[in-house]
Structures are given as C-alpha cells and as structure tokens.
Amino acid sequence: MNTQIIIYTISIIGLILFIYACFVEPYLIHIADIEINIPDLPVELNGLSICHLSDMHIYKYGFLEKLISQKLKSINSDICVVTGDIFHNSNGINAFLQLIGNISTTYGIYAIPGNGEHISRIDLKDAYERLKPAGINLLVNTNDTICINDCKVNIIGVDDPFMGYNKINDAYMNCNNYDFSLLLAHSPDIIAELDDYRPNLILAGHTHGGQIRFPVIGSIWNNCRHVKGISKGIYGSDRLSKNLQKQLNDVIMYVNRGLSSRVIRMRFLCKPEITLIKITNLKKS
What does pTM read for this prediction? Predict the structure, then answer.
C-alpha cells in the first residue's frame, strides 16, 4: 500500500469519526442505572432512587431537549436533582420547565446553578420564582429537609464552586440531626471546600465526562481548578482523600457526564448521560 492510499484511508476514517462525534454521539443519550452503597445508611432509606441530570445548557426547546424529555418519560424516581449549567437565557428557563415536566418523582425536584448561569448573568432570584410554582426547588447556598419513611434527608445545594460562588457554611446553616445528607455541587471542585462537613453523597457535573475521551487514556481535561483525574463516575472516600491529600471519611461522589455543552456539543466515547442512582445500605464490619 503506497503512501497516498494510507493518507487517503486515514483521512476518510478521520472524517467519519468527526461526523460521528459531532452529529451522532451527542444525541445518543444513555440512561445509566447505578447502585451506590452508603455506609450505615438507615434501612428505611435502602433503595432510595435519585434521578441525576446535569449540564443541559438549554437555550431553547430544540431537538436535543425533545430527546431528553422523551427519555425522562420512562423514569420514575424518589428525587430528581439537576446539578447546574441548566439554562443560559430566559427562553432556556421556559424550555427547561417544558422538558422537566415529563419526569415523575415522589419527593420533588432540586436544582442548583452552575458557572453557565453566572456567565450568562441569569437572575437567580427570578429563576427561583419561575421554577418554584412547577415544584422545582432552586437551592443557592441553602438546604431543604424532607422526611422519607420517618428518616430526615437533608438536601444541600451550593452555588457554583468553579467560579467561587459557593458558600458552604450558608448552605449547611441549620442542617443537622440528619439520617442522610445529599450535597449538590456543580463542580467536583467542591471537595476542596468541604471544611469539616462530611455529606454522605455528593452529586456533581461540570466536567462533561471529559467530553472527548481516548481509548486507554480516557479524558485529558476535566475543567476543574482543584481536583485532577476526576471526570466521570463514582469516587469513594479513599480516591477523594488521595486526590485532595485530606481525609474525607465516608464521603462518596458521583460525577455526571452531562447532557450537552455550552459551545461545542462534540462527544467521543463519552455519551450524554441521565443517571438513575439507587442508594443501598452497607453496614460497616
């Protein structure tokens, strides 16, 4: 095979991969069913389900948003959470309300802002007032407590840690005597800001899973300031402690790959994700 044929073949393969990454994979939404074992979780909360959405970057109710909405029709969960970069303009808020209306939950929907909302200068107070009537709780450095099977579940939402809007002490104010604590943060960077707080589970996004991943190597960029090598999936306390060089006993974090992107939707080996999490009881020996 001569050099010209080799170059031609490589060019064709490259073009096919580029078309796939731009126009195919960004729309192959994957519903990830995962189970997370929580040390000493009360038996009453065993099997609690959480639908986790992140990084939808909504400008309008377009083709991708319709696909997401269709996927959500098949999901029933106890709680739905949305970890930031939801919308970038007023139309995005309306489109989000239209999209999220298809999901069925028992204990409500909780959302937090990401860096995208701040970059676009979204009025978070206005967003809160528009989301609240639809049953969507926007947590901005605050928390809410719900009772599930006589157990107190605290849902803590911090503002975006990537751009430094998080106020962890405000978010945890009056948050005590809980049976299970769920911390929502847009970026995995939040583990550097925990101080002495130790939530049972952190749900984050922001990284888009690296968006472009390579075989064996994985992602080469996670767009974080304080953590390295964290881009998608489950991270236990040992991995988090090693990454931060600080002991984070019993803290578990899940990082969602997200559903879209602010500028370029290109994805490769990193399908957009809706996560359905089931938390289970794991007793310490």
Answer: 0.95
